[in-house]
Specification:
Radius of gyration: 27 Å
CATH class of the largest domain: Mainly Beta
Helix content: 10-25%
Structural class: mainly beta
Shape: globular
CATH topology of the largest domain: Beta-galactosidase, Chain A, domain 5
Number of domains: 4
């Protein structure tokens, strides 16, 4: 097993033993003469060990007591690490028993002017007798603000006290500034003092802000000052940066403003959710057509209620509206009442609906058979963009991630965490040996290369060796692409979500033209392989997906043979469902659905780059011209070649129309209405496609009714092929 996750099976026992051992206070803490704070020291490689999400490096400064370690980076003075020194289980359930993990992404003082935030970057970071002192500035353009910050670790508690003294050292002081901190500490729900539930967005005054997650609950509160907190989530499941402000207004001429606050591991000062007083048990058994237990996803709704039944950061036994199983067996207690269950195991299988009534102290059974109804031999279902706990913004354990992926019928999963490389294979093996996962899953190590400093986009690179990564900080496009080819020879270099915000989206950064795909900015490098045309985040609005589809077609028309892919970009158990969308890859090896998962990795990579694939969130497309499919070239076919299209879908997936697009202007040459049906075969039709010269043909299929097994009820089914290249 990967040493980073060694001992997972014994984690709970180890936690109990270590907790009993470490609760005995060391003798040095018993006397009254001990200092109140700890002395700083240097971080070592042994300190880091196999911890996840560590941004500091050996030689940075640390503060450490029996309970916790805090690390301040020398290069910028930011507090980037805070981890528990005890075997502390996460308080966000979907992290499972992941204990060896940093609890903080980044924490730094900042100055706000209007809507802009200016980070304080230190020019000096030093150890002082009772802490770590940083001296830095924030330049707003019209003024330069200095902040001298001292970090102190409480000797007896898992608590860091942070004292900053702000002053003006250049230009004119503005009276409209705000002084505070910028905080990121995991992609989990944020709790705010005085509110009974964690809001997606908040702006206002409060006594504290906190989260449940890695290392336990983490709370930020001011000392002797008010605090104003502002954060927002663009969509459910993606928490943004917290702006914590302690001072509003100017700084006296020649004077300064001091702000003090605490960041501590301690239980959130809010009661846990009330458990139902009367419950019954639901036992599920989910099998395939041969009676074998299979991974599955179960949607649970209460009639008449739109509120999700489970907490957002829950585990496989309940998160948002869903439960998951890796072997077809699941048992849990629910409050007495009526429920609607919808059970699926991927888009190639039928679904099971059942209304049940949970009775007090009684067992209610749900037996579901989910036969494969859409055969896809020779094709492998892939999600090429997945995040899990090693990624700073994915608070989901690797074990939970694997089960959730398998429950969607995905057969090939690529781990693409930010800033690190993750190997899912040891955890797949661990689950398989224990019977917790009853189907094989092929995995691959990759990375989402997210540019920092000079920000111009996010890029997937795979396969990669574990421990290797691509240059991402203060780099250029050419340097990044060159390093990607070096670290992953023959691998895939993909542009991710190219049309989102410019800082994370390559085409947006370079100003892609809506009409012809040209780029407005200089420095654009076209030397990549694939484009993530269909991203799970954008799937909430089909118009957004179709916009990127058109961008990609423009690039094809400009002579670039980029293959299109689609992936979930999932960061949690719910909200961006793994495998929705997915890339169906014709790997050219094997003739059975049961053996597709064993397709050679090299063949899969070659097929991805060649575009021998289609992308879908539900409908399955077979499209050929003269026997040639997506990614292939049909020659000598005349000016009206025959296009044969077969569309299949599981009975629970809506399909209503088909389009045929030709050439770089995406000319629509056919539109076919597809009648709604519960039959698997929705369309089998041969069409004449008019062409004048060498070009390409793309087929799209869509439905109108939202998919019933996704976190977003309005996610429309959509699929499209890679181009079939044709010459008359």
């Amino acid at each position: 097993m990967n040493p980073r996750f060694r001992g997972r099976a014994k984690a709970l026992l180890a936690f109990s033993a270590l907790a009993a051992l470490l609760t005995r206070a060391p003798s040095m803490l018993r006397g009254n003469s001990a200092p109140l704070t700890v002395s700083p020291s240097r971080l070592t490689a042994e300190d880091i060990g196999h911890k996840l999400r560590v941004f500091a490096a050996p030689g940075d400064f640390k503060l450490e007591n029996e309970l916790a370690t805090a690390v301040v980076r020398k290069k910028d003075g930011w507090l980037t690490e805070l981890w528990s020194n005890r075997a502390t289980l996460p308080t966000a359930k979907q992290l499972g028993v992941t204990t060896d993990i940093d609890a903080l992404w980044r924490f730094f003082p900042m100055v706000q002017l209007g809507k802009r935030t200016f980070p304080v970057v230190a020019s000096r970071v030093a150890m002082v007798p009772d802490g770590i002192e940083t001296d830095g500035t924030a330049d707003t353009g019209s003024s330069v603000y200095r902040a001298v910050t001292t970090y102190k670790m409480d000797r007896r508690r898992a608590r860091v006290e942070i004292i900053s003294r702000f002053s003006v050292v250049g230009g004119k002081a503005s009276g409209g500034i705000k002084l505070g901190d910028s905080v990121k500490w995991g992609n989990v729900s944020y709790w705010v003092g005085g509110l009974p539930r964690p809001p997606m967005k908040f702006q206002g005054r409060t006594k504290w802000v906190g989260r449940r997650g890695a290392g336990g609950d983490l709370v930020l509160r001011p000392i002797d000052r008010p605090m104003w907190v502002k954060y927002s989530a663009r969509i459910q499941g993606f928490q943004g940066t917290i702006d914590a402000v302690y001072h509003k207004g100017g700084i006296p001429k020649g004077g300064s403003v001091e702000v003090r606050r605490q960041l501590a591991f301690e239980p959130l000062p809010t009661p846990p959710p009330a458990e139902p007083k009367t419950t019954g048990t639901v036992e599920l058994r989910i099998v395939d057509e041969n009676g074998r237990g299979i991974p599955a996803k179960i949607r649970v709704d209460r009639p008449g209620s739109k509120r999700p039944l489970f907490e957002a950061d829950g585990d496989l036994y309940g998160a948002d509206r869903f439960m998951w199983t890796g072997n077809g067996n699941l048992s849990r207690d629910l409050a007495v009442g009526r429920y609607q269950f919808f059970v699926t195991s991927g888009i190639e299988r039928d679904a099971h609906r059942q209304s049940i009534e949970v009775k007090k102290n009684r067992v209610t059974r749900v037996d579901a058979k989910l036969p494969r109804v859409v055969p896809t031999p020779g094709w492998i279902a892939a999600d090429l963009h997945l995040h899990q706990a090693p990624s700073v913004d994915a608070d989901i354990s690797i074990l939970e991630r694997i089960v959730s992926v398998a429950a969607e019928g995905v057969e090939f999963a690529v781990a693409t965490d930010h800033y690190v490389t993750t190997d899912l294979a040891p955890e797949v093996e661990w689950l398989r040996k224990r019977g917790a996962l009853t189907v094989p899953l092929q995995t691959m190590v990759g990375s989402e290369v997210s540019t920092v400093g000079n920000r111009f986009g996010h890029f997937n690179v795979f396969p990669l060796a574990t421990g290797k990564n691509i240059v991402y900080e203060d780099t250029t496009v050419d340097e990044l692409f060159r390093d990607a080819r070096k670290q992953s020879p023959g691998g895939v270099l993909q542009v991710n979500h190219p049309r989102m915000a410019p800082a994370i989206s390559y085409w947006s950064y370079y100003g892609i033209d809506d009409n012809d795909g040209s780029m407005a900015r200089k420095g654009y490098n076209p030397a990549f392989d694939t484009v993530e045309v269909y991203n799970g985040d954008e799937a909430r609005d089909l118009k957004m997906v179709q916009r990127v589809l058109l961008d990609w077609i423009h690039q094809l028309g400009r002579g670039h043979r980029y293959a299109a892919t689609g992936s979930s970009d999932s960061h949690k158990l719910a909200f961006l469902d793994p495998g929705l969308p997915r890339t169906m890859i014709r790997h050219g090896a094997g003739k059975s659905d049961d053996t597709d998962v064993a397709a050679p990795a090299g063949r899969i990579i070659d097929a991805i780059k060649a575009g021998r694939s289609f992308v879908t969130s539900g409908p399955m497309i077979e499209a050929t011209i003269a026997g040639k499919g997506p990614g292939e070239t049909a020659t000598g076919v005349g000016r009206k070649p025959e296009l044969r299209v077969v569309v299949r879908a599981a009975p629970w997936i809506d399909v209503t129309s088909l389009k045929v697009l030709v050439g770089g202007n995406a000319k629509q040459v056919e539109w076919v209405k597809i009648s709604r049906s519960k039959k698997v075969l929705r369309l089998d039709k041969t069409l004449r496609v008019p062409i004048e010269k060498a070009t390409f043909v793309i087929v799209t299929v869509s439905g109108q009714r939202g998919l019933p097994n996704t976190s977003r009820d309005f996610m429309q089914p959509f699929a499209f092929t890679n181009p079939i290249w044709v010459t008359p």
